[in-house]
């Protein structure tokens, strides 16, 4: 331990005495060199981290129009008109770097008509992890909001949840299943996020996607 104390004392003498003035250009050069080296290491580590851990970056979120078009044509049967409308809506939105409002899709149909499947195809064309992406959020009326007497609590929780997820990633996707069973008050609580707003309480929702399944 004694040698270490002498080293500390020596450094103190160098920087707190007249010797420091003579060595200042050298010490500054060393400090700058160390900072540059450290920055390079951090950037390299960050790039490695982004490659293996899903982040809100183009490496993980990038629209593949060809994939969506091919999937809709080959996997969704008997829905040619819907396929064209969906492809046009999603493509136009994703290629717009400054949309005026979020993309809102409302898919109607009987059970088994492919509403949930279409949502999956859209997610697969945007997120590298598809429906398993941490930026894709699915809500089920009967599962997440089962008790009408707790509607006020659900409204507050849903607003906080949506806001928090968009703060984390502006390219978030929200899928609401069984909309026909959702309490009207709950629907009203998120309407503010779907309209033309530059920002709401400092948060922009304009690059998010909301899909409602009925």
Automatic annotation (TrEMBL):
Keywords, ordered alphabetically: Signal
Annotated signal sequence is 1-22
- Lipid metabolism keyword on record: no
SUPFAM superfamilies named among the record's database cross-references: P-loop containing nucleoside triphosphate hydrolases
The similarity annotation says: Belongs to the ClpA/ClpB family. Torsin subfamily.
Q: What is this protein called?
A: Torsin
Which taxonomic lineage is given here? Eukaryota, Metazoa, Chordata, Craniata, Vertebrata
